[in-house]
Protein: Polyamine aminopropyltransferase
Amino acid sequence: MIEPHAPAPPGTAPPRSGPGPAGLPVRPATGRFLVLVGVFVCAACGLVYELELVALASYLIGDSVTQASVVLSVMVFAMGIGSLLAKRLRCRAAAGFGAVEALLALVGGCSAMALYAAFAWTGDWGGAWTGGSSYVLVAFSLAIGLLIGAEVPLLMELIQRIRRQDAGGAVADLFAADYVGALAGGLAFPFLLLPLLGQLTATLVTGTVNAIAGGALVLGLFRQDLTRRARWLLVAANLAVLGVLGSAAVLVDDFERAARQEVYGKDVRVALHTDVQEVVLTGDTDGRPLGLYLDGRLWADGGDERRYHRALVQPAMNGRNTRVLVLGGGDGLAVREVLLHRDVRRVDVVELDTQFVQLARTDPALSALNGHAFRDPRVRVTAADAFGWLRRAPRDTYDVVVSDLPDPGATSSTKLYSQEFYGLARGVLADGGRLVVHAGPVASRPRVFWTVDATVRATGLRTVPYSVGGHDRARAGTARAAHDWGFVLASRARPRLWTPPGAPHVPSLRAGARAAERTRLTGLPVSTLVHPRYAD
Structure:
């Protein structure tokens, strides 16, 4: 702890108001202000690094709650260790802070590219904590946390070098600037950096700002605290860091293209970052079927997507189906199946991602696959979150509700597989209406599947679970792996499985119901908004 500065003896002249102690080039008040500005900028950059790791890891590995918990807990732990280690550098605070900021700018600025490279080239396809992306995530969280933790003790020493004050006041000033900087970084990341620059370029730009701010503070304000050799080493280090970050920024598009091809194959045709997700289209050339990927995961394979969408939609169409509600379904493939029935008069599609819907309208291959469903005058699209829309929807309106939403195991989707959500969906069903839900694979994740079934039944609906087999798209040098899709058909009265005549892509649904029944798990608790139950 730094002792408060003793008062001057009686008769002693007051301190000079000119240049600060130890050869500072500015007055003490100005120097102190510049240090606090440096704290503000460095704190903003540090929080951007944290948010970038959480966001990119959630996209690449999945389960945003787990990723946020791992990144933040590892970083906070590492910050404590970094603060302890920085005590050894307090005697050379200026040189130490300059070195820490140069290294932090390099590590933090390159973290997004390193994590994306690990995901693309190690084959870590998400979900399990055993792949390359997970190890890289922990390593960068640890390194960035150590460096951020080393900042405060060194900045405390620097601000006391300018003007001695009680330790409590100095800490209060530093943390005030630090927290305000964190606020600025936290708001800039989602509202400015991410939409304008994307994750990779935004992180490189943040590293550049970090290097310039740290280098300018030390070399401009505390250069007299450095030996001639230390000054030149710090200049060279910062120029090297800026050179690496600048080169990476120039090559970032080529890097992203190469990584994307490693993930999706050589036939990537469309790669679109919407406000909601990343959409990638592959194939439909040289005889390869269309592949639709959302946030890095295969959503629809032109080779067997009809098995999935017909198994999802057609059983629910057994009965009156004048008005149909599709929740999700921005690709138009479920809507295509609904429109096969001539007595359908209106189809309402509630899809949050309007850019995805526009792609499904205009892309020649995807629009051909969905049968140009969005051109049909019976189809009306509403850009809204499905949960919020259902809360305002008219009751007892729809004969069929099709829930074509992302996998229930994804943290961002758990509210769309909750008891509250299904209660809202039940409220919009007309008398005799049916609800059908995509509930994830049965064989590999029976607990998730049967939790969906239990949650739907908790709203008072009666259910018939069933499954349909399919095949994963093969990567180069690998065979296509078999898997299954699970569905839950529900209504107020017990629904009856029905396969429409002339639907060759749908196998016997009764056999699928029997196969699902063999995996049944009983006694599972329902999933709610405040207590999601879909963790494997």
About this structure: Residues 170 and 359 are 55 Å apart (CA to CA). The two ends are 48 Å apart (CA to CA). The chain has 14 helices and eleven strands. Residues 167-221 form the longest helix (55 residues).
